TrEMBL record, chain A:
This is ABC-2 type transport system permease protein. It is a multi-pass membrane protein. The lineage of its organism: Archaea, Methanobacteriati, Methanobacteriota, Stenosarchaea group, Halobacteria. Pfam families: ABC2_membrane. It is found in: Membrane. The chain crosses the membrane at residues 25-44, 56-74, 104-126, 138-162, 174-192, 237-258. Keywords: Membrane, Transmembrane, Transmembrane helix. Its main location: membrane. PROSITE patterns: ABC_TM2. Coiled coil: none annotated. InterPro entries: ABC-2_transport_permease (IPR052522), ABC2_TM (IPR013525), ABC2_TM_bact-type (IPR047817), ABC_2_transport (IPR000412). Residues 19-261 form the ABC transmembrane type-2 domain. GO terms for cellular component: ATP-binding cassette (ABC) transporter complex.
TrEMBL record, chain B:
Keywords: ATP-binding, Nucleotide-binding, Transport. This is ABC-2 type transport system ATP-binding protein. InterPro entries: AAA+_ATPase, ABC_transporter-like_ATP-bd, ABC_transporter-like_CS, ABC_transporter_ATP-binding, DrrA1/2-like_C, P-loop_NTPase. It comes from the Archaea. The keyword Nucleotide-binding applies. Residues 331-348 have a biased composition (Basic and acidic residues). It holds the Pfam family ABC_tran. PANTHER family: ABC TRANSPORTER ATP-BINDING PROTEIN, ABC-TYPE MULTIDRUG TRANSPORT SYSTEM, ATPASE COMPONENT.
Length: 266, 348
């Protein structure tokens, strides 16, 4: 898989966003400073601990890390594919002897890296506002890689499906963000007093992602309290397993779309 | 060794429009092959089918024996394409664009950098190596497309109208360069609107029209298929009534006879001016005309091209193809306008 061609495309994709920090890393950094300042410092002091022993500003960190990671992974992949289609320079890749799997994994991998870098930047910003100690390091790393790759994979589909730049905005603003905001970023499922509210929330895949990262970072998982008692303690691992499977499926769909030339060839 | 390009009954349909109609074509290794045809003839569709930018609807296409779909990696590795459109990565200086392209073709990083410098020097824009594509002039952009096609050291170089809109000097530079490459063993497929270009460069040319192959021949062979015109100036005038008789009296070799308004000269259209002229002189003298002067005009390849691509149903198909081209052009313009706006908004 790590052929010279693959490495060349992966490197090209990395350089594209690394050389433009003003466009790629500064905006999420500034946005998250505002989030932590307003929701954490100004409002957070007036909000009770959503979970016992975890202050609101600390509780926010995993959700904001997930929000930044997945939206940047998605945005990078969708922009890279769509911009390449729009200006037709994606032909440089398509007319090369790279396999379709190599092309997809290079695009997904580089976009996931951008998402992960943004996630780390947000965690560092959070650390400036509140002390953070990582509870389950390996689990956290695995989860972050999976969700960054998953949304990079979705970004590829978005970039192939989009017909103009507005379509990309619509995907990000009207699909991704509502799911994230109702994905327990700013609240805990334990705060609901109605069972149906929890049940509806569990239909949102973001809940599992945010919860998994929160478990990795803070050691708290809502899933443990809402899952059936028999496997409650394994709930975060089940979430990670399902997310991993979903990521593989999405990347397989990406490869298929490249193979049939969806949005890429006439 | 299999042919550089071999297609059999190649078909491409866009809904009701058949862009390629059972196209069978063979380009031998080492050939300099030209594709001629009017807009909408299917030349670019044919090329894009070979490189994987267009999915064929039917038939077979092979590059050096590799099926363009089943063995797409081998087929694409053999091809260097300089397209009509400026489809170049805008994010990087052109030297890096070339390094990336070489990398995609499996050229290691160090060697890719060397090759990038080498091809930039070869096409004469090495001093612009740190510029981005958008800052190059039109001619330099054309040169870069050629450099990008060459950086992978292809066995088959495909040039899709490489000299469209370029100045005379650049056109001659490009001609010299591709001739040199062909002499070094690279197979070249060239599409062009310039008949002179095909005549000057190509070993053989295929004339396409409406997705079909009209004919394949050497430029010299093609020229023999046209008619010549013998212009004759006479000592005495021909009466108006005698013109109609002339066509009958001169026999089958004279396809068309026209006389000047003053009646002192006539033009006779024949298949082969050189061999027919003596007979025409004899016949005219036998009819009592005295010949003052005679001149033979050979058919240009351009005239033959126009003859071959002219057909009854062309009006309908060409006009729709032309509308499609216009539409694509218009969309391209719109895209560029929106793109400029986006560039101002920033980069995601």
């Amino acid at each position: 898989m790590l052929s010279v061609g693959f490495r060349a495309l992966f490197r090209r994709e990395l350089l594209r966003f690394i050389r433009r920090p003003k466009n790629t890393f500064m905006p999420p950094a500034i946005t998250n400073v505002l989030y932590f300042a307003v929701f954490g410092l100004i409002l957070g002091g007036r909000i009770d601990e959503p979970v016992e022993g975890i202050g609101y500003i600390l509780f926010l960190v995993p959700g904001l890390v997930v929000l930044g990671t997945i939206s940047n992974a998605f945005e990078n992949a969708s922009f890279s594919i769509f911009h390449g289609r729009w200006n037709e320079y994606i032909h440089e890749t398509l007319t090369s002897p790279l396999s379709y799997a190599e092309m997809v994994v290079a695009y997904v991998g580089a976009s996931a890296v951008r998402g992960l870098i943004v996630g780390v930047i947000i965690a560092v910003i959070g650390r400036l506002f509140v002390p953070i100690s990582i509870e389950h390091g390996l689990f956290l790393v695995a989860t972050m890689i999976v969700i960054a790759s998953l949304f990079a994979g979705f970004g590829i589909i978005g970039g192939l499906v989009a017909r103009d730049f507005d379509d990309l905005t619509v995907m990000n603003q009207f699909i991704l963000r509502p799911l994230v905001f109702f994905g327990a970023v700013f609240y805990s499922l334990e705060m609901f007093d109605q069972a149906w509210q929890v049940q509806v929330s569990l239909l949102n895949p973001m809940v599992y992602m945010v919860d998994s990262v929160r478990y990795g970072l803070l050691g708290h998982s809502d899933m443990i309290s809402v899952a059936p008692t028999a496997y409650a303690e394994f709930a975060p691992y089940v979430s990670l397993g399902i997310l991993t499977l979903l990521t593989v499926v999405v990347i397989a769909v990406d490869v298929y779309l490249f193979k049939v030339g969806y949005g890429l060839t006439d | 060794m299999p042919p550089a390009i071999e297609t059999t009954d190649l078909v491409k349909e866009y809904g009701d429009l058949r862009a390629l109609q059972e196209l069978s074509l063979t380009v031998e290794e080492g050939e300099f092959f030209g594709l001629l045809g009017p807009n909408g003839a299917g030349k670019t569709t044919f090329i894009n089918t070979l490189v994987g930018l267009v999915r064929k609807t039917g038939g077979d296409a092979r590059v050096f024996g590799h099926d363009v779909e089943d063995d797409y990696r081998q087929a694409r590795d053999a091809i260097g394409l300089a397209p009509q459109e400026f489809n170049v990565d805008r994010f990087f200086p052109i030297r890096e664009v070339l390094e990336h392209k070489a990398g995609y073709h499996g050229v290691p990083e160090d060697e890719a950098a060397e090759r990038a410098d080498e091809v930039l020097k070869r096409v004469g824009i090495y001093d612009k190596r740190n510029e981005r594509f958008d800052w190059l002039s039109g001619g330099m952009k054309r040169r870069l497309l050629l450099a990008r096609a060459l950086v992978t050291d292809p066995d088959l170089l495909i040039l899709d109208e490489p000299t469209a809109g370029v100045d005379v000097q650049l056109r001659h530079d490009l001609w010299d360069l591709v001739t040199e490459l062909n002499e070094e063993g690279t197979t070249i497929l060239l599409t062009t609107h310039y008949i002179e270009e095909a005549e000057r460069l190509c070993d053989r040319v295929a004339i396409m029209n409406e997705g079909r192959k009209v004919t394949v021949a050497t430029p010299d062979d093609l020229k023999t298929r046209g008619t010549d015109t013998i212009s004759v100036r006479l000592e005495s005038q021909i009466s108006a009534g005698a013109t109609a008789d002339l066509e009958t009296d001169l026999g089958a070799y004279a396809h068309e006879v026209t006389t000047s308004a003053a009646g002192e000269s006539l033009e006779v259209r024949v298949d082969d001016g050189g061999s027919t002229a003596p007979q025409l002189l004899n016949d005219l003298e036998a009819m009592g005309y005295e010949i003052v002067d005679l001149e033979i005009s050979r058919t240009s390849l351009e005239e033959i091209f126009v003859d071959l691509t002219r057909s009854e149903d062309r009006t309908v198909t060409r006009s729709s193809a032309s509308s499609a081209d216009d539409g694509a052009e218009e969309n391209g313009e719109k895209k560029r306008d929106v793109e400029r706006e986006r560039e101002q908004e920033g980069v995601a």
